[in-house]
Write the structure tokens for this entry.
Amino acid sequence: MRGALTLAVLLAAWPTFAQPFEITPLVSVTSSASIDRTAVGIQELTVDRSISWGSQVGYFFSTHVGLEALWTYQSTALSLSAVSGRAEVMTMTTEQAHGTLVYQFGSAERTARPFVFAGLGGTFFRSPGLESETKASWTVGAGLKWFLQRTLGVEIRGRYKPTLLDDAASSTCRPFGFCQNSLNRFELAGGAIFRF
């Protein structure tokens, strides 16, 4: 009898112990990134701005603190500008995978909840005809979640997402190293939140 009563109390209290999982498909705009070193006659060399898409999965240990796994994919190009005009040097894709620590402000009952996050991960560069490369990267940002109901909401977030190239000392500039220490990009994203 005591076991059945204990089980009944635990099941009744389960919603207060259970913390939500959140799945968020994302669409974003990723900024261009300048390449520092260029040849004579080239005014600008950039990884172009483009649309990215991806998703994140989060688990919250408490009302405020959680962990997220974030993945994004971007199809872009390396372009140069000269006096004669602008040209695409090569097409490329970048994927990023990050694990982030998230802090949400306010109580769980609030409809709108601002948040901040920071994390580490990797960036994967690919281009036809070139060997793929993986570089370390990190991210930091902030956003706002607005819940239409307990299990459905929307999110906007901005983040800084530099990739560590560690190639500034190289005498030969190569793709995905670009003779610089980091590739600095920003991203503005939005998506629907599905909470379980």
